[in-house]
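stage 2 :: seqdesign
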């Protein structure tokens, strides 16, 4: 791990604000002055010196909070604004920077609607901070309502790359957000199903897709309605295998790359898990049974569940999701012969162009991004500059403790979520036409998976739709 870098609130951007010592009196004392006069003068000089030191100390303290008293508007939903995490977050920013944050409440967009925060910014509403995922910020960048952070960071003497590495949302060569945490994909498994099947718990070493399938077959018991594996119907499941083998969604000329053989191989792999290997419900069964996203936690009928790490947040809520079986944790599997990798999607804070105090907004965004994980909400920090000691302490106190029932250890969490050697791949396609491309992938690939069209037809249609969407975005 890299050496920890100081927070923006204590950076040297305020050095120029330090106040020098007060100048002493330059008048020469009379050589014939009596003791009383000399003592009085000495006392006055001492008092002036003390007052000067106090003023300097006060100026130095103030320099640690150059934006003390500034008020910023943070756009969020009504629900999020009243949530415990956001309430704690604005208190943390106030404590560390002196900045006051007011929630600028914006209604949530309904399915199919444009993000209402984006609409508000395009209308010119003054907003200082927004939150979105790395892929989600792409739409704000396309609309020209995000302030590039490179110049703001340079002015503040802030090392974005040294603090967050590759997790930052970078578009067109500039950084447009600071990532607070990253949702890293993992494998969860039901220890009871392993025990009942007499199968040893898997280990992270060599946890390939081949090993995953082999293990899932041993767990699957159709007579009991038990599947060895569960996956959902998100777009990324369709191309995850291709990404892990080096596939890129766009060609060098900017057109779609869905006619690449790796993409076709990925579709065959994913839908084959249900249709051929029979280790999980086929997409037809999944849709017909209306399988919920939380079926792993609520049914106890799936041996393994491969999904984003955010799903762990429900597993220690025993009042809402009661269970008497224990959970195991592993990284995301990877193709044999490839380097270990995982899907990720960072959650980021960004500064809109409508902000009237962008320097203060950057300071607040940096404070939020660096420190949100410390609030005890089970977040996986996107920071790459944390020391091993800091990670161990955080994992032990904030991540592992809520899973004492399951016997999950610090090493389990570190292996799944803090392996710096594991390649991080974007869960979402980010680029021209990405929203339309995502929709085309879901529609056409599921038709293939359900047997309604051939894989070649599905690939051809996705490639055509992708190129049309790319051209439309460029216009």
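stage 2 :: out
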């Amino acid at each position: 791990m890299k050496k920890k870098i100081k927070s923006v609130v204590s950076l040297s951007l305020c050095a120029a604000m330090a106040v020098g010592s007060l100048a002493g009196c330059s008048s020469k004392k009379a050589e014939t002055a009596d003791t009383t006069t000399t003592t009085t003068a000495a006392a006055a000089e001492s008092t002036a010196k003390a007052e000067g030191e106090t003023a300097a100390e006060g100026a130095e303290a103030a320099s640690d909070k150059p934006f003390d008293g500034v008020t910023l508007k943070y756009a969020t939903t009504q629900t999020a604004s009243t949530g415990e995490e956001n309430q704690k977050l604005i208190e943390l920013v106030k404590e560390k920077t002196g900045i006051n944050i007011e929630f600028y409440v914006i209604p949530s967009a309904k399915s199919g609607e444009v993000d209402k925060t984006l609409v508000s910014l395009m209308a010119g509403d003054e907003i200082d901070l927004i939150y979105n995922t790395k892929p989600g910020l792409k739409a704000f960048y396309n609309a020209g309502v995000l302030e590039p952070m490179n110049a703001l960071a340079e002015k503040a003497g802030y090392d974005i790359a040294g603090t967050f590495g590759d997790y930052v949302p970078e578009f067109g060569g500039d950084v447009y957000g600071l990532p607070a945490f990253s949702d890293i994909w993992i494998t969860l498994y039901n220890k009871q199903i392993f025990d009942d099947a007499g199968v040893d718990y898997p280990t992270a070493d060599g946890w390939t897709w081949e090993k995953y399938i082999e293990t899932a077959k041993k767990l699957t018991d159709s007579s009991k309605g038990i599947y060895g594996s569960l996956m959902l119907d998100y777009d990324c499941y369709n191309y995850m295998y291709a990404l892990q083998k080096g596939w890129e969604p766009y060609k060098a000329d900017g057109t779609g790359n869905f006619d690449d053989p790796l993409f076709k191989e990925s579709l065959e792999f994913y839908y084959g898990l249900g249709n051929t290997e029979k280790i999980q419900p086929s997409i037809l069964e999944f849709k017909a049974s209306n399988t919920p996203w939380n079926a792993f936690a609520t049914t106890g009928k799936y041996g393994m569940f491969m999904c984003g790490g955010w799903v762990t947040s429900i597993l220690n809520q025993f009042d809402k999701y009661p269970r008497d079986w224990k959970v195991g944790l592993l990284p995301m599997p990877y193709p044999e012969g490839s380097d270990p990798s995982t899907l990720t999607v960072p959650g980021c804070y960004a500064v809109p162009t409508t902000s009237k105090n962008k320097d203060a907004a950057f300071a607040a965004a940096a404070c939020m991004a660096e420190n949100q994980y410390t609030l005890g909400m089970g977040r996986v920090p996107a920071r790459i500059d944390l020391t091993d000691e800091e990670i161990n302490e955080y994992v032990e106190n904030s991540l592992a403790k809520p899973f004492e029932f399951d016997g999950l250890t610090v090493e389990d969490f570190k292996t799944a979520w803090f392996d710096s050697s594991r390649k991080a791949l974007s869960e979402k396609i980010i680029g021209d036409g990405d929203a339309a491309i995502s929709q085309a992938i879901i529609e056409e690939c599921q038709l293939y998976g359900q047997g309604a069209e051939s894989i070649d037809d599905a690939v051809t249609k996705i490639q055509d739709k992708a190129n049309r969407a790319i051209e439309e975005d460029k216009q």
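stage 3 :: structure notes
- Residues 1-62 have pLDDT under 50 and may be disordered.
- The longest helix spans residues 35-63.
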